[in-house]
Amino acid sequence: MTAPSTAPAPHKGSHWIEQWDPEDESFWESEGRHIARRNLTFSVISEHIGFSVWSMYSVLALFMGPAYGIDPAGKFFLVATASLVGAILRVPYGFAVARFGGRNWTIFSAGLLLVPTVALLLVMKPGTSYATFMAVAVLTGVGGANFASSMTNINSFYPLRLKGWALGMNAGGGNIGVAVVQLMALLVIGVAGAGHPRVLLSIYVPLIVLATVLSARYMDNLGPVRNDAGAAKEAVKEAHTWIMSFLYIGTFGSFIGYSFAFGLVLQNQFGRTPLQAASLTFIGPLLGSLIRPIGGRLADRLGGARVTLWNFGLMALATGVVVTASVQKSLPLFIAGFIALFVLTGVGNGSTYKMIPGIFRAKAAAKGMTGEEAAVYARRLSGASMALIGAVGALGGVGINMALRQSFLSVGTGTGAFAGFLVYYAVCFAVTWVVYLRRPAALAAKAAPSEAKPQLSYAEV
Q1: Residue 122 and residue 135: Cα distance in Å, rounded?
Q2: Cα–Cα dist 135/131, whole Å
């Protein structure tokens, strides 16, 4: 009697791909590249709208005049709540791809964006209670979670040599949703006035429906990406998961935190009107999003750790400019420093995410794995760790908004918070150097002195 097969049964439906090996160059050139780029394109569309919904409160705060009865600290708390929920939901979203399929989860997560958008359409008016606004802020968090599932999905489509570019394009296209919704708000305020936030919200309802339909029509599920609880457990126990989370707080946490807070700071520290603030807030997120793929490409060529190291050094310098401008009350210098910070967060976002698959590929080599075995190990662990790293990194956005809230409550400006951010970037610089550029090469040489061919060190990730 033949024993029953333990292999997973093939999935049903035309949108499931059961054989996928992007590291096979002949497969990649013949059909893999085309399929991967198609999925990347429509992943970006859904993630882009997700970021717009997630950051919606940072824009709607510009419409919330005195009639709403919400002070600056209350507005910072609303955007911090949205940031917190988005960060927490990134963990289950990241693992959902392997459980349900990348296409299937993208359809669901894109369609779910209708819930907070329609809720905002209903409640966005003077007289609504603060508790109601808080409840809807919780709902907008689902937009931030889309990033984790999107990145985990696209990571599986691309070969290691192109992951920096692919992940940078995917994340950059998503991140730019922050700038686009701010530009849309500027247009609405300029044409209809600050008393018509529902015009902005009504624009996004058909866009969400369109993104959902496009995902269903053009995206695919990868059969080989199975739900693997073991990979999640390994990622939690892996020290590099938490080290990279710490660094990602400094890059992405800064990007999303500053994106949410920039307009509020301009209004409350520099006395800008909603229209004046809206005319400036989109510039930083736009540049930071556009530069992210370049950060990934630089990391592909120079090594993610090297790019990340010097990027944190420059972020510390740019923050020094922001602190100086805040003390001197110089708006032009403040904007220049902030724009530089946004650009650097984009570069750092690209380089840090490139490091993740490289780190686990290096670990596979250190374990003596080669070929497909090494590729599978790196894909499992990097995919699982990305969900956790993305979630912890997004918590940086919460920290930035809460720090600014406390700084404004205490001294009426954000200077103290900015000084704290400078110290954090300096610590990130030191951690990157010690863990990925100084110690690993020496440890690798010490651990394997008899090898004819040196192993990949973390300095090359």
Answers
A1: 13
A2: 6
Burial of 187 (C-beta count, 10 Å sphere; 0-12/13-18/19+): middle
Residue 142 is encoded by which pair of tokens? 């689902």
395, 252 Cβ separation under 8 angstroms: no
| Six token digits for residue 399 | 């920290």
Nearest to 385 by CA among 258, 211, 240: 240
Domain count, the chain: 1
Q: Give the pTM.
A: 0.81
Left, alpha or beta for 207 (phi > 0: left; psi -120 to 50: alpha)? alpha
Residues linked to residue 16 through DSSP beta bridges, in sequence order = 221
Structure tokens at 141: 């968090």
Find the farthest-apart pair of alpha carbons in the chain and give their distance in angstroms, rounded: 84
CATH of the domain at 160: 1.20.1250.20
**Torsion angle of C-alpha atoms 293, 298, 299, 302, degrees rounded to 10:** 170
The span from the CA of 302 to the CA of 459, in Å, is: 10
Question: What is the DSSP track for 182-230?
Answer: HHHHHHHHHHT-TT-HHHHHHHHHHHHHHHHHHHHHH--EETT----HH
- Joined together, the tokens standing for residue 409 give 């409550």
The DSSP 8-state label assigned to residue 9 in this structure reads P
Whether 89 contacts 392, CB under 8 Å: no
What average pLDDT does the structure give for the chain? 87
Residue 10 lies in a domain: no
In a domain, 119, yes or no: yes
| Residue length of the chain | 461
**Is 206 inside a domain boundary?**
yes
Count of C-beta atoms within a 10 Å radius of residue 14: 6
DSSP 238: -
> Each residue of 63-121: pLDDT tens digit?
888 899 998 889 889 988 999 999 999 989 988 998 899 999 999 999 999 999 999 99
Q: Is residue 2 part of a domain?
A: no
Q: What is the pLDDT of residue 297?
A: 87
Q: CA angle 417-344-331, nearest 5°?
A: 55
Residue position matching structure tokens 């609880």:
229
Contacts for 227-236: CB closer than 8 Å, 24+ residues apart = 227/95, 227/98, 227/99, 228/98, 228/380, 228/384, 231/380, 231/381, 231/383, 231/384, 232/95, 232/384, 232/387, 234/380, 234/381, 234/384, 235/381, 235/384, 235/385, 235/387, 235/388, 236/388
Q: What domain range is 43 assigned to?
A: 22-460
